[in-house]
Amino acid sequence: MWLLTMLACSGSADIIEGNIRPSAVLLVPLNDSDLADAQELVFTALIADDRDPAEVMGVTWSWAGDPMEGEAGLSGDMATMTVESPGLGEHEVWIEVVDVNGATGGDKATFTLRVPEDADLDGDGYIDVALGGADCDDTDPDIAPGTIELCDGIDQDCDGEVDEDLLTTWYLDQDGDGFGDPVWSVQSCERPANSAVENDTDCDDTDAGVYPGAPERCDGVDQDCDGTIDEDDAAGGWYADQDQDGWGDAQQPLASCEPTVGGALDDTDCDDLDADQRWCLSCADLSARDLVVEGLNSLSTSTGASYETLCDDDWTLVATNTRTGPWDPAAVLDDATFGSPSESEDFKSQAWSSAPFTDVRFVNDGEYARYDDVGDGTQPWHAFQIAVPGANCGPDTEWHWEMTEGTMSGHYLCSTDLYVNPSAYNATGCPEGAPGFGPTWSIWTPGFPCPLNLPHASGFQNDDLNQNPFGADEGPLRMWVR
């Protein structure tokens, strides 16, 4: 009896006579062991007691006394604990068991979690974050810490940010003037499918004529987005009118939106030094003002009607014959227009009847013939041509001109002189018939002498300008004036 009392007072687990302390033996992990790290770890221990079955005993798992969160299990005498990996390095696990009499027992083990040998699945040198590494996608070798970030919606460098410093801010350009609306924007790697630009400087994105640097006009609108309306350099107001014909020079805007002495509101005067000329009637008019552009140019008739033709510096294209045959008299003599400036169809420009000229030039497949001082500079070709007498005869008539410059050649040419509205001529005089209309050259026919044996019976054509020795025609004939 004395013995039992002593044991009770000493705090021994042998609270009841014959009771043996319960035991717990860790199987995983073993003390001083290494474990391969994983997302989840499973610890196991064998527990035993001399009287109580395992299922009635209390089992506590901890990290060296600190609470361990996980899923505990018990199967027979085997206790288990499933926990998330605490991370690489050294750790200590404790297990404690208590029987129904309050007697306790337990075990502990120190172990080290190490990287599994096959943990780097994509071979990029980094293991998955789930295993304590820094690879945020261990299935893609192009994703790892230090990788150059691409603008594609993926976090390549595993810093937790996507497309950092790579996104472009795009601004809606509703009016298509190249300047964006600061109110509407989106960030993306690629330019949006709709109209968008990288600047936000448009002060009115509904008007394509309003943007930074736009020409300011006298209309109460801030075209150039500088916060000032109708400043001194505004256009569309008054223009210099030096010849005082009421029409201003578009190239000389006046720095004023208010009525100005010596100015005009209109800007359509092509020659502001000549009160009798308002419109740009020829390419020479455009060239004098440095307005000739490559390709088609816009000219005006004497009434202001606009049309397009080709310019070659100060030369104006008036006609093209594409070798489909000579033009009939009406096509040569009237003022009707037809075709387009392309080389694929016959073309008679409005310039035929409206572009004043002095010189005329014919171009055919690289060959050319230029005749200076044919006109007096006041009439277009049509007015000049109908003033020339029809069927004028003989080489001594005043209605033919020697070539000023050119390379015109041809097996059938009698001479390079240009004739207008001639009739046939030979050594016997002027035979009847065979009149020509418009610009014509003297051609040779076997059995008939030069110099003006046979102008074509219709007129403007190109079978005489550049014939090869076999008489084959080459390329279209183009007629220019200046």
Describe this structure in words.
- By secondary structure, the protein is mainly beta.
- The chain folds into three domains: 7-114, Sandwich (Immunoglobulin-like); 236-273, no CATH class; 279-482, no CATH class.
- The protein has five helices and 25 strands.
- The strands form six sheets. Strands 15, 16, 17, 18, 19, 20, 22 and 25 form an eight-stranded antiparallel beta sheet that branches.
- Strand 15 and strand 16 form a beta hairpin.
Q: How is this structure best summarized?
A:
The protein is mainly β.
Helix content: under 10%
Structural class: mainly beta
Radius of gyration: 51 Å
The poorly predicted ranges are: 1-15, 466-471
How are the secondary structure elements laid out?
Elements (H helix, E strand, L loop, with lengths): L1 H9 L12 E6 L4 E4 L3 E9 L9 E6 L2 E2 L3 E5 L2 E7 L4 E10 L5 E11 L53 E5 L12 E4 L7 E2 L41 E2 L22 E2 L18 H6 L7 E5 L5 E7 L2 E7 L7 H5 L13 E2 L2 H4 L5 E5 L2 E5 L9 H7 L12 E2 L3 E2 L11 E3 L18 E2 L36 E5 L1
Parallel strand pairs: 2-9
Antiparallel strand pairs: 1-3, 3-7, 4-5, 4-8, 6-7, 8-9, 10-11, 10-12, 13-14, 15-16, 16-17, 17-18, 17-25, 19-20, 19-25, 20-22, 21-23, 23-24
Question: Which descriptors would you attach to this protein?
Answer:
482 residues; mainly beta; Immunoglobulin-like; 3 domains; five-stranded mixed beta sheet; 5 helices; elongated
